[in-house]
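Exercise 7.
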Amino acid sequence: MQLALWQILILAVVQGVTEFLPISSDGHLVAITPWLTGGETPADMNAIVVMLHMGTLASILVFYRRQLLDLLTKDRQTIPLLVVGTIPAVLIGLPLEKYGDAILNSPLLAALFLPITGAIVLYAAYTREGSQRYQELTYLQALTIGLAQAAAILPGISRSGCTIASGVGMGLARPSAATFSFLLGAPIIAGAGLLKGAKMITGHPPATSLWLLAIGALVSFVVGLIALTWLIRWLERGKLHYFGWYCIVLGTVLSAWQLYGFL
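Solution. The predicted structure, written as tokens, is:
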């Protein structure tokens, strides 16, 4: 099936809001899509998700443009840390991308894993933050955060929630943990986009038209910028726990719907 413009717009707004808030963007997309499509999952759902992620990747590049410029100048020592942190997601993500469609697109798994995300976010919210900057991470710490990012390949597990919680647990201040989280996520999102783009070029175009996907990416970019600004403010005000409880409640409701058809 092919999604209509209104369906793409709803998914783009959801992606823009949830990519940066620690509530699992993929989990929301996978869980919400059946409601929009009458229970069907589009055959090109992976392509739709990746294109929407391209929009939020642009949000990262714009929002963190100063930090990205610093990587090329005074913060060059951070680049190896990002490389080390990216390795686990690459090693786990490539096989799943090829063989794990049933897992990545499972609404039931997304619903079941959302409460786990909630628990992780609550840990980050109630753990006393340190004063360490992400530039001061060791390679082992960067690898540990990278493993947390790799776990978030599963639907319903928030990438930002896992990596921020992991960073805070190692003594990073929450804003610094968030910055490293999104810098670490940029190459993964870009790499997934390149792989999917290559598949489109080599003869596997998505059923959804490219102009609809482009509109979706633009909307997710604008909404993503707003959500990223919002998240940083909430981190500074110590209100991260709201997202944790939200994930627990939503995951419980969606699990009941998937398992027992209550909704």
